[in-house]
Specification:
about 30% strand; 8 strands; Aminopeptidase; 5 helices; globular; alpha+beta
Length: about 200
């Protein structure tokens, strides 16, 4: 496996490889804010969580590492994120399937989780590029991706059929290796302002 399925530990968050034992905590997390009600997001309902976690574990066996996100202060699981579309031959991966409990939003949690994921990709795996994808109309997600320092590559028109039958235009962003030092400095600066 190009990306090792190991915990990533920071000051505010710890990312641990997703396991079936995390399903109940994730059910609780997703109920805080009811993110599955956002029509433009693919967040599981509580009753879908067991299947969501099982599918992520199967994906991890194929190299798409999924994590439970733990708030280090409360020691509670507050969401999930993962690497997907992992392409070790071309040293590229996407980061996504990220969602958090409402209580974790607008905190250092997402910033540090992304820093840990990116440090692992660029530092340990010598990645060439990382990609982020989101619904064109998900302005919250697009803003968060742009604040990371990712650049818009383009829009994939009518890219996916959503669960409500609507067609999703997908905004594709990336960070390439030459941009990583500046992106890392920016993320560390954002986190230092929270100390």
């Amino acid at each position: 496996m190009w990306i090792k399925n190991v915990p990533l530990v920071g000051r505010w968050v710890t990312l641990i490889p997703l396991a079936m034992g995390h399903s109940e905590a994730l059910k609780n997390a997703v109920q805080d804010g009811e993110s599955w009600r956002l029509w433009y997001a693919n967040v599981p309902k509580p009753e879908q969580m067991d299947d969501y976690v099982a599918d992520a574990i199967v994906g991890a066996e194929q190299g798409n590492v999924a994590y439970a996100v733990i708030n280090n202060q409360s020691q509670q699981i507050v969401g999930t994120t993962r690497y997907y579309q992992v392409d070790g031959d071309n040293r590229r991966a996407a980061i996504g399937y990220t969602w958090y409990a409402n209580s974790a939003r607008r905190t250092a949690i997402n910033t540090e989780a992304k820093l840990l994921l990116l440090e692992n990709l660029f530092g340990q795996c010598n990645a060439v590029a990382v990609e982020f994808r989101t619904h064109f109309l998900n302005h919250t997600s697009r803003g968060a991706i742009e604040r990371l320092g990712a650049k818009l590559d383009g829009i994939l028109r009518a890219h996916q059929i959503m669960r409500d039958g609507s067609l999703r235009d997908t905004a594709v962003y990336s960070i390439v290796a030459s941009e990583w030092p500046a992106v890392r400095n920016n993320l560390k600066y954002k986190l230092s302002s929270r100390m």
